[in-house]
Specification:
Mean pLDDT: 86
Number of helices: 23
CATH superfamily of one domain: Trafficking protein particle complex subunit 3
Strand order of the largest sheet: 9-10-13-8-14
CATH class of one domain: Alpha Beta
Bound molecules: zinc ion
Radius of gyration: 37 Å
Oligomer: single chain
Length: 569
């Protein structure tokens, strides 16, 4: 089959050189003449700076864009002639533009059916020539821009992605190139080639990698306490110190605290700090198990013990042998299971449900609860003897409200973790967002913070900040914050300054007192950093120090003047 080109005089007429105006035109598109050696230098630079894969992608996309432009001529020129003649505008323009001599070898297509098959021979490809000039004879085909053009032109013409590949390339030492094109789905390795046409930011990838490296680094470096615990507040330190002291012993530990304070994380950290860290850590949430299965879950079951026990299996105690077992929400254990648990703790051995033999086990028990066990004992829902057995070494984990100084470091470490997890580059928290986190009441504690930060990472724009509306999407604009009549931090009615002044006057405090309180508030907000506090107040550091000193002097005088109460606090 020989395919003959129709005359290309119509295409040649499109090309206009206008040296007087410094422009070359093809129809209404501006063109430019470039040295192939300049393009070869660009190619060499791309290859050495970003590597062959990314260089190939960029050059393919450049050719693709050029093919798309030329496909527009195919739509409007040669009306009334055969579709094949319209299609051949592409190869003919490619020749006119100096890409290569293009000879059609096979060409069949059916636009409504989406079918395409094409084979072309390229002689004198400028790209193979330029590539060879820089790199000599190479192993892999190198006419990426030209292939991009063929794919772009044909895809626009067909209305679906047509992938062209080189089966022979002059850059590899052949005397010509040969290309084959078909719909990308019909190539066995088509999907792997899709990356060359897609939008793909190398910079973004590198930034995400950087984030992942940082997240990994922070999980490796013991700068924050082990076991993913983050915190520097006094309340946190206190609980952490208690834990550090007991970790190396075998003592049963009872973790108390509100829901979501991180009892499981604490017990993991306890396990990691203990001599059992190489052993298993097993956690059971007693409230999540149906009460009829709880004994089988904890102690294991022998085959045939009850309907449905088709096979023998071990319980959590056995699985935790040599390690640590966390019984979370231990206050929810049914009384029958409590009796059995007590026996296990007293004797150090378990018996599977429906079994006759006992097994020795070596487990360090950590129990956790968010209810008051004393109260559960009084209400008859919890055995007193078991409570004493568990309550050997209680550690109360503070609520997030009691450790506000930890909110920012916790939020930052979660941000790093979730950015890496969701492959999202987030620049940080906006000022108002951080303020909102600091002021929130945190009924759900660390877990709630975690949920909010994860949502924030997902909702924030790529490369942008997490703003208030990403954290609290359903909340109206937060009102400004200030001191209320009791000197407590509170949200003020947004009615404005008049309202604030009225409230201060109604509080009956003197201007001196208001100023002293405002200074203290700024120092607290700046976490004791006086320069920062001064900046918040619009003062210099010296001015702030002077004012603080005069307030303290007055307070001391007032103290000295006042008769001391007996036992006054
Ligand atoms: Zn080639």
């Amino acid at each position: 089959m020989t395919l003959k080109y129709p005359p290309d005089s119509d295409l040649r007429r499109l090309l206009r050189f206008e040296p007087d105006s410094g422009a070359i035109w093809m129809g209404d598109r501006r063109m430019v003449l470039m040295h192939t050696m300049a393009l070869a230098a660009l190619r060499q630079d791309l290859l050495s700076s970003i590597g062959p894969e990314h260089a190939r992608r960029i050059l393919t996309r450049m050719g693709y864009a050029s093919g798309l432009c030329d496909a527009e001529y195919a739509k409007k020129m040669r009306p009334g002639e055969s579709l094949k003649d319209s299609f051949l505008i592409g190869p003919q323009l490619h020749m006119l533009e100096g890409a290569a001599r293009v000879t059609p070898v096979k060409l069949t297509f059916d636009i409504p059916a989406g079918q395409f098959y094409g084979e072309f021979r390229w002689d004198h490809s400028w790209e193979a020539y330029a590539h060879q000039q820089k790199f000599g004879v190479v192993v892999e085909a190198a006419c990426w821009t030209l292939l991009g053009y063929a794919s772009g032109y044909t895809s626009a013409f067909m209305g679906r992605l047509i992938l062209f590949k080189e089966t022979i390339c002059a850059a590899c030492g052949a005397d010509h190139c040969h290309i084959v094109g078909r719909p990308i789905e019909q190539w066995p390795d088509g999907e792997a080639h899709r990356v060359y046409f897609g939008d793909d930011s190398l910079v973004e990838k590198m930034e995400i990698l950087q984030l992942q490296v940082e997240a990994l680094k922070s999980s490796l470096e013991p700068t924050v306490p082990v076991g993913r615990l983050v915190g520097a507040s006094d309340a946190f330190r206190k609980a952490y110190t208690l834990m550090g002291k007991v970790a190396q012993t075998q003592v049963t530990v009872l973790l108390t605290g509100e829901t979501g304070v991180g009892k499981e994380r604490f017990s993991r950290a306890l396990h990691e700090l203990s001599a059992r860290s190489a052993g298993p850590f097993v956690a059971v949430n007693c409230a999540a198990l149906p009460s009829e299965l709880i004994e089988a879950e904890l102690f294991g079951v022998e085959k045939g013990a009850y309907t449905g026990a088709h096979a023998s299996r071990s319980g959590r105690f056995e699985r935790a042998d040599g390690g640590t077992l966390l019984l979370d929400e231990v206050g929810e254990l049914p009384l029958a299971a409590q009796a059995k648990l007590l026996r296990v703790l007293q004797e150090g051995e378990i018996e599977r449900v429906g079994g006759e033999t006992t097994r020795k086990i070596d487990v360090r028990l950590v129990a956790a609860t968010n209810i008051d066990l004393e109260e559960a004992v009084r209400a008859g829902r919890f055995r007193r003897d078991l409570m004493y057995r568990l309550n050997v070494y209680p550690i109360c984990i503070p609520s997030l409200r009691e450790r506000r100084a930890d909110i920012e470091p916790l939020a930052q470490s979660m941000l790093a973790r979730f950015s890496a997890l969701h492959h999202k580059r987030v620049a940080g928290f906006g000022e108002r967002a951080m303020q909102a986190l600091q002021q929130h009441d945190w009924p759900g504690n660390v877990r709630e913070l975690e949920n909010l930060v994860e949502r924030g990472v997902i909702l924030a724009n790529q490369g942008g900040m997490i703003e208030v509306e990403h954290l609290f999407p359903n909340q109206p604009e937060t009102a400004p914050t200030g001191l209320d009549a009791h000197g407590q931090l509170a949200q003020l009615p947004s009615a404005g300054d008049d309202e604030l002044c009225a409230r201060i006057l109604e509080s009956g405090r003197s201007l001196q007192e208001v100023e002293a309180q405002l200074l203290d508030f700024a120092v607290t907000r700046a976490r004791g950093n006086l320069s920062e506090a001064a900046r918040l107040l619009g003062l210099t550091r010296a001015q702030l120090a002077y004012r603080q000193k005069s307030h303290h002097a007055k307070a001391d005088r007032a103290d000295a003047d006042r008769p001391h109460d007996l036992g006054g606090v």
